[in-house]
Amino acid sequence: MAKLVGQGYDGAANMSGHLSGVQTRIRQLYPKARYVHCASHRLNLALSNTISLPSIRNCIGIVNEIENLFRNHSNANTTFQDVIQKHAPESKKRRLVRLCETRFIERHESFISFMELFKFIVLSLEIISSKTWSISSKAPAFLAAVEKSDFLLSLFVCEQLFSLTLPLSVQLHEKSMDFVSAMNRAKELIRTLHQIRETADGFFNDIFQTASQMSKDLFDTSRQTTRANPPCTTPESHFRVTIYILCVDALIQNMTEHLLVNEDILSSFQILLPGFAAIDNAEELKNLTIYFEEQISMTALKSEYRLWCASLSTIDPTIEVLKLLQHCDATYFKNIHYLLTILPTLPVTTASFERTSSTLKRIKTLPRSVMGNERLSALAVIAVPWDIKIDPDEVINDMASKKKRKILLI
Predict the structure, then answer these.
(1) Which of 177, 231, 255, 356 is deepest in the core (most CB within 10 A)?
(2) Which of 311, 326, 355 finishes a domain?
(3) In a domain, 384, yes or no
(4) How far is 218 from 215, CA to CA, in rounded Å?
(5) What is the pLDDT of residues 7-18, one digit of tens each?
(6) With pLDDT > 90 as the criterion, what percentage of the chain qualifies?
(7) Residue 168: inside a domain, yes or no?
(8) Is 236 found in the same domain as 99?
């Protein structure tokens, strides 16, 4: 534990609390263990706050209810499949993806499938509303909701914004992702959102034109008391202000607040990286004294840093930290190499580890509620590392060789 240099958790108060949280108690014992809030959780928090806007929240709620209708009721699902078979028999997508409550990667897939099958959803709802089933009373309400201009525009806006955040969400789960790359990707995403905000007219015009072909009620902009009514001359400008710009601004604000919260850690190590390393920055090495004060003096580290700055002139400034370590001679630049080793060691995300808890929900079902810890552990080992291939013959041979059995295994 004396070598512990980083700790990562979600943002729960009992873990991240600065007074009596787990990370505070650990840092009291091991001061080098910097706390890093899981980047995947921070991204989810930013998106969760963004979709809390009334128009986006209502849109997601309607999508979720419609997907549950077709997934949970056999009559509705059969009707849906028949409509797809009749109008698009060659279509590969025939099933709506459920909206995940926690992972926004799955939400993006859900929106894509919903939009691709939107025509068939409308036709299916029309058929269901004409039946005498118990679920038929819900279909007219859903049908009226999906034809509203607010819903369609919010649907397209969500799809575009989720598409922008999807690459970052996927890359955060990569094993090779380091702290520097994660922060750089987050900054690139925020810059892209600022560019979209500055040219909102052009981006929203494409969304508006596409959505106008899907709804005959798109140009219904009658004034209401339950929604924003800014002074606009056209329906497009009205929805651009009340939905698109509002959503982009909220996403920029939440991404900046949540994803850049650990930027102070990056600024401390940044002076070691190509493009930032300079002899004039030698004084800033004092911010890293907690890691080397017991091993080397500041004077010796500054001298080594001067040599390190000279060697970086031939290295690509965009190089990843793990590859930069290969260029850093551990014998010649002993202390610099040690500091560079700490940077990729800092945790970026803890979402992968938390999937173990989600796996337990699938393993310990009601029929298995009385099983012992040994079997539960064995099932968890099988379920968690799903990418490890197991040879059945090898398992049978191993079991047969341990003791005599009444059943002949081999």
Answers:
(1) 255
(2) 355
(3) no
(4) 5
(5) 888 888 888 888
(6) 16
(7) yes
(8) yes
